[in-house]
Write a structure and sequence with these properties.
5% of the residues lie in helices and 56% in strands. The chain contains four helices and 39 strands. The strands form nine sheets. Strands 1, 2, 3, 4, 37, 38 and 39 form a seven-stranded antiparallel sheet that branches. Strands 9, 10, 11, 12 and 13 form a five-stranded antiparallel sheet that branches. It comes from Sinomicrobium oceani.
Length: 518
């Protein structure tokens, strides 16, 4: 075991967002675990799960967790290192090893991984027994090779049923250019006993057909959202558009076609699925007219998957107020408005991050402004403003708003972005911010990673789209630790586990809990 305690701190509890006369925000409490120290430069890349014996964390080597060596470390119920660790991928393997999926299911953890050489791909699984925290040897699922094609282009995906009783492994076989591709579907129980083994031919040549998303219906049917391109050239140069989305169900060894979602003259980078209580499926996302890395409106389609009927398909362009919501400089506002009049402006770099379901078939799209700039071997990562759009059950806009956020960091992005939590009709956004921005509505912002004012923050977005920022913990409270908002796991319905580390000394690490009062 390569961890020892750095120094002990008593767990402490800080009350946050206490109720006041102007806001009905429920109290949130934050508890911090003891700071511990790694002997090696290794960081968590996944919080797998927990049971009565403790917590199970996937670690990988390197500053960004980019190295091949991976291990599961066990932490006590009080979030201290237990001294127990299991190495996963054997180190003597030749080739590139990748984790395809890892998940806790009952009293075990399932790990599926691949080993890739120039001409061969192998898929393995491992089972970790949590009763005695022991590892079974890797077992081969399948292997295939083809010296005439690029084996690295083969598709593989791991997904578990919603009740975690079944494991679905979908993987593609190598094909020559222009050939119709074939994918295999293997279904296992959670002990990896094979239940089903089926093959599916792509409806179109692999050069023009791309599996965009794999998800379950509310009846536990396996659904595929795919992109069909007009040519293989467009597949590589998506700026030329020329594609449409297709919805399928994998059924009886066929891609059973459900519906087409045409894109027409706009870029629609990604669509997120949301199942409604009546069984209808909503596919929604951002679209742009000029630049595929921008947004000029929101797209919504509602589909009756039983008969393949598109009940409604709408696109809503954003208004002038939306584009200028965070600007306080008249010259900047006028420049944006002039470009909008000429239809030569969109909000740049916005990416859809999450879609949340609300009562009455309403949904909220959460987007973030993300890009990077490379110069002199330094990559600067920008994770900035958050834009929100609520749509009603007909797909019409209820409200829109923007929240100013500024995460700019050189060479690393794992401390940026945000994590959304839905509580009743409110949404909480958890992220690294700056206490100088508490009352910000327009204009310039302080960077979250500036020397002064660093804070881990929550922004409560109310049901009507208005919002309130609050500091959850200052940099001084965290004693040099910075939270990674995307590394999370729910302990129970009211307690969220997060992880943080010292940016300047990655070996210093700790966990925190964000506790929402019921």
């Amino acid at each position: 075991m390569r961890i020892h305690l750095f120094f002990l701190l008593l767990l402490f509890t800080t009350p946050l967002l206490a109720q006041d006369s102007t806001d009905n925000t429920p109290e949130i409490r934050i508890t911090q675990g003891n700071v511990f120290k790694n002997d090696e430069r290794e960081i968590p890349i996944d919080i797998i799960g927990h049971d009565e014996n403790g917590y199970y964390i996937l670690y990988a080597g390197g500053r960004f967790g980019q190295k091949k060596n991976k291990s599961i470390r066990k932490f006590t119920p009080s979030l201290e290192p237990s001294g127990e660790e299991i190495d996963l991928i054997p180190e003597d393997q030749e080739g590139e090893a990748r984790t395809i999926g890892i998940a806790q299911t009952g009293d075990k953890i399932v790990h599926v991984w691949s080993l890739l050489t120039e001409t061969e791909k192998k898929l393995f699984y491992q089972l970790i027994d949590l009763d005695d925290f022991s590892l079974q040897s890797s077992s081969l699922i399948t292997a295939f090779s083809n010296e005439e094609t690029d084996i690295t282009r083969t598709y593989s995906n791991f997904i578990m049923s919603q009740d975690k009783s079944r494991i679905y492994l979908l993987y593609g076989m190598p094909t020559k250019k222009g050939e119709t591709a074939r994918i295999n579907l293997k279904v296992f129980d959670n002990s990896f006993k094979e239940i089903k083994n089926e093959s599916y031919d792509f409806p179109y040549p692999e050069d023009t057909f791309y599996i965009h998303d794999l998800f379950f219906s509310n009846k536990d049917e396996l659904m595929v959202l795919a992109k069909k391109y007009n040519s293989d050239r467009i597949l590589k140069e998506e700026r030329n558009k020329g594609y449409q989305y297709l919805l399928y169900q994998l059924q009886d060894q066929e891609f059973h076609h459900i519906a087409n979602i045409p894109v027409n003259d706009k870029h629609l980078r990604m669509l997120e699925p949301v199942w409604l209580p009546d069984g209808n499926l909503v596919l929604t996302g951002l679209y742009s007219k000029l630049d595929m890395y921008a947004m000029s409106g929101v797209f919504y389609t509602r589909i009756d998957t039983e008969n393949g009927t598109v009940i409604s398909a709408k696109e809503h362009p954003f208004g002038h107020d939306f584009y200028t919501a965070l600007l306080d400089n008249e010259n900047k506002i006028n420049r944006v408005l002039k470009k909008l009049e000429k239809q030569k402006y969109e909000d740049p770099y916005y990416i859809l991050r999450k879609v949340l379901k609300k009562p009455d078939d309403h949904i909220v799209l959460l987007t973030e402004q993300i890009h990077s700039v490379s110069h002199d071997f330094v990559i600067q990562y920008f994770h900035e403003n958050i834009a929100m759009i609520e749509l009603d059950g007909s797909g019409d806009i209820v409200w829109t708003n923007k929240i100013g956020k500024k995460n700019i960091k050189n060479n690393v992005s794992i401390y940026s972005s945000f994590f959304p939590v839905k509580r009743a009709n409110d949404i909480f956004l958890l992220y690294n911010g700056n206490s100088s921005n508490l009352d910000h509505r327009k204009g310039s912002l302080a960077n979250a990673f500036a020397p002064n004012g660093r804070a881990f923050m929550a922004t409560k977005v109310r049901d009507d789209g208005t919002y309130l920022r609050t500091v959850l913990a200052t940099g001084e409270d965290m004693e040099g630790i910075t939270i990674r908002p995307s590394l999370t796991n729910w302990i129970d319905e009211n307690t969220l586990l997060l992880f943080g580390q010292d940016i300047d000394n990655l070996k210093n690490q700790r966990f925190i809990k964000v506790i929402f009062e019921p």
